[in-house]
Task: inverse folding
């Protein structure tokens, strides 16, 4: 036993898969210790806030602040004027202001803005300058004007009695605030979702729930498959025929269809997380049964089984001591695959809206479902679905890698 | 040698132990039906050392499994101690298995590799009713059984089967039989996976078992020379049928069936040129 475990951990593939899986599991348990927010708290008031740190506007405005000799307009200009805008300005200056092309340097934003301010005439009329174009230039001018503005903002407070506005503070272009001075702030590393919930916290909670669904579904599928496979393979005869008839029935009808039908017929009210795990487990056992049965059939005529029979051992004892240990490694491998496919099944079911019907917990599939329903993929809110996809892929990748590693350890033909 | 002569003389006086009439085993049905054992009759008496000789695929192992009660008999009847054998229920089967035990061909496959060899010996003690015997008594019995086959129990205890050599494993199987002392021993080519030196030891032990507890030994082999040296009675099996049977000397010195002659000719002799002309070419 000790040696087997040692051997298993010598397999590079198993080790990589194991480390990824353990890391995911560790994050699921350690993250909530440090981040104690409710994962489903609707903190944002709108859809899909992008990732970043959000600081209180009021606090930032009323903060004493610091003066930095850094011209804010310059970087604002840089973000306001893209390559397209700069090309538009160049076109105007050449065509309508008569400036030679060699005097214009498109890469130097400051110089071109200076030229623009000297030469732009909003009322100019020229051939080829349609009104649509003129309006576009006016908009461009306005945005430049806006970016250049550094006159300062006046903060006013309303007098409680008279209702008059009194100047409280002036904010200059060189005024800065240290984010450490602001008490009310929150960082959304992965932004918020359609309900305004912190995606990262939600993702960690969802991963935990999905792993639980996978584990329960995998355990049920393996247990049912193992018991039926052992009985069918060892007892044989009529019992084998009946069990194989059932198994073939489930194999012929795609289990995903059965899954959808059961999930639908159970009804929305009953479809909790546990129920979904049970449904997945009870529809995915057939292939475990088939493979366990064939392994048992090849074992049941071995001499050591015959000897055990002749020693007067009961059927259960023979199954548990003379057959089960020989297929144990195979069963463990099958269970790992069942867990992985359980997680994927949940994601698939939830994607089409037949997953756990609950707003109390999140699962990876439900997060995908929400992101899809609120068109996150269309409005560019990648943070609402892409991290979920990555986590699902990582879990099933690590489990499959562990399975391949185990296969190489237990199946000498695959050893290199 | 004198003893052996004597025992051979009163072969016919012995009580019948295991006999069969028209025993048949057919595998599969319809077009795929394959008759492995085809209406064989036999009478094994108490204390007989019987050899069943035949080439690979002649149905020897199938017959032995039927006799052991591991597979069902398609047709025919097997009698045990003069009465029809009844193994219809689990309890009856258990009772029958107290009287018949096997040694298999492959010692490496005969052990459950997940359990220490003590488990095999303890099973025998439980079967003989020593389940609640004191530990010292159990150890004494196990030590005695091991020393019967020239093994030291103290060295073997707490070892796993794969830590033993093939010869040791097969000897331990004989120790198991020594503990169980069944009326019939079914030895299915027990020496074919063992080197020549260990083979002699193992055969000697089987003979000793027969002499000590008057055990009926059914020895299945493909080696007719070996059968001649050790057995009282020989049954020659070809394609599921017994083509010849009788006392070992009669059958081998005066073979009647062509198949027996061929088998005898196929045995390589040290001082003669090996006549390969009789080798079946089909």
Result:
């Amino acid at each position: 036993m000790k040696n087997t475990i040692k051997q298993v951990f010598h397999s590079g593939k198993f080790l990589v898969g194991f480390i990824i899986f353990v890391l995911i599991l560790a994050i699921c348990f350690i993250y909530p210790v440090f981040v104690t927010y409710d994962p489903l708290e609707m903190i944002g008031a709108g859809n899909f806030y992008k990732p970043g740190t959000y600081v209180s506007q009021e606090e930032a405005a009323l903060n004493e602040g610091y003066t930095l000799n850094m011209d804010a307009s310059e970087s604002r200009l840089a973000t306001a004027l893209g390559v397209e805008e700069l090309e538009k300005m160049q076109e105007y200056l050449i065509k309508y202001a008569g400036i030679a092309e060699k005097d214009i340097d498109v890469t130097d934003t400051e110089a071109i803005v200076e030229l623009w301010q000297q030469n732009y005439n909003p009322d100019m009329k020229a051939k080829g300058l349609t009104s649509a174009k003129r309006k576009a230039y006016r908009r461009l001018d306005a945005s430049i004007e806006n970016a250049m503005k550094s006159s300062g903002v006046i903060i006013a407070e309303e007098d409680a009695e008279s209702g008059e506005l009194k100047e409280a503070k002036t904010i200059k272009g060189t005024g800065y605030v240290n984010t450490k001075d602001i008490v009310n702030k929150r960082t959304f590393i992965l932004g918020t979702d359609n309900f305004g919930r912190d995606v990262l916290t939600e993702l960690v909670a969802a991963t935990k729930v999905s792993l639980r669904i996978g584990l329960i579904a995998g355990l049920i599928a393996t247990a049912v498959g193992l018991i039926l496979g052992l009985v069918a393979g060892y007892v044989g005869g009529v019992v084998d025929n009946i069990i194989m008839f059932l198994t073939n029935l489930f194999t012929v009808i795609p289990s995903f269809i059965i899954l959808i039908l059961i999930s639908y017929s159970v009804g929305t009210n009953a479809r909790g997380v546990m129920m979904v795990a049970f449904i997945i487990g009870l529809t995915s056992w057939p292939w475990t049964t088939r493979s366990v049965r064939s392994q048992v059939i090849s074992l049941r005529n071995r001499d050591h089984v015959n000897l055990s029979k002749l020693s007067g051992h009961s059927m259960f004892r023979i199954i548990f001591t003379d057959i089960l240990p020989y297929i144990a490694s195979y069963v463990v491998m099958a269970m790992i695959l069942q867990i992985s496919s359980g997680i994927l099944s949940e994601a698939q079911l939830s994607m089409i809206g037949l997953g756990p019907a609950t707003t109390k917990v999140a699962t990876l599939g439900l997060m995908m479902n929400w992101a899809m329903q609120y068109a996150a993929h269309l409005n560019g809110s990648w943070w609402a679905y892409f991290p979920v996809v990555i986590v699902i892929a990582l879990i099933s990748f690590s489990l499959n890698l562990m399975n391949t590693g185990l296969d190489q350890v237990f199946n000498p033909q695959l050893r290199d | 040698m004198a003893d052996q002569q004597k025992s051979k003389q009163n072969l016919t006086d012995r009580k019948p132990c295991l006999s069969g009439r028209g025993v048949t085993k057919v595998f599969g049905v319809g077009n795929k039906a394959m008759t492995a054992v085809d209406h064989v009759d036999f009478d094994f008496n108490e204390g007989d050392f019987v050899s069943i000789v035949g080439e690979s695929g002649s149905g020897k192992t199938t017959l032995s499994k039927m006799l052991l009660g591991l597979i069902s008999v398609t047709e025919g009847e097997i009698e045990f101690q003069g009465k029809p054998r009844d193994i219809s229920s689990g309890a009856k089967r258990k009772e029958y298995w107290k009287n018949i035990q096997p040694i298999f061909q492959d010692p490496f496959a005969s052990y459950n590799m997940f359990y220490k060899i003590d488990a095999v010996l303890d099973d025998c003690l439980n079967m003989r009713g020593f389940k609640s015997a004191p530990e010292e008594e159990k150890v004494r019995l196990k030590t005695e059984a091991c020393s019967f086959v020239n093994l030291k129990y103290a060295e073997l205890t707490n070892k796993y089967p794969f830590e033993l050599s093939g010869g040791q494993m097969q000897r331990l199987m004989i120790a198991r039989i020594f503990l169980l002392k069944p009326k019939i021993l079914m030895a299915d080519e027990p020496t074919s996976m063992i080197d020549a030196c260990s083979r002699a030891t193992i055969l000697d032990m089987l003979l000793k078992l027969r002499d000590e507890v008057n055990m009926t030994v059914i020895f299945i082999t493909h080696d007719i020379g070996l059968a001649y040296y050790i057995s009282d009675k020989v049954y020659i099996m070809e394609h599921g049928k017994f083509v010849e049977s009788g006392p070992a000397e009669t059958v081998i010195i005066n073979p009647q069936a062509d198949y027996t002659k061929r088998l005898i000719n196929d045995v390589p002799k040290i001082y003669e040129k090996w006549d390969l002309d009789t080798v079946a070419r089909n």
Notes: Residues 46 and 196 of chain A are 6 Å apart (CA to CA). Chain A has a mean pLDDT of 87. The radius of gyration of chain A is 33 Å.
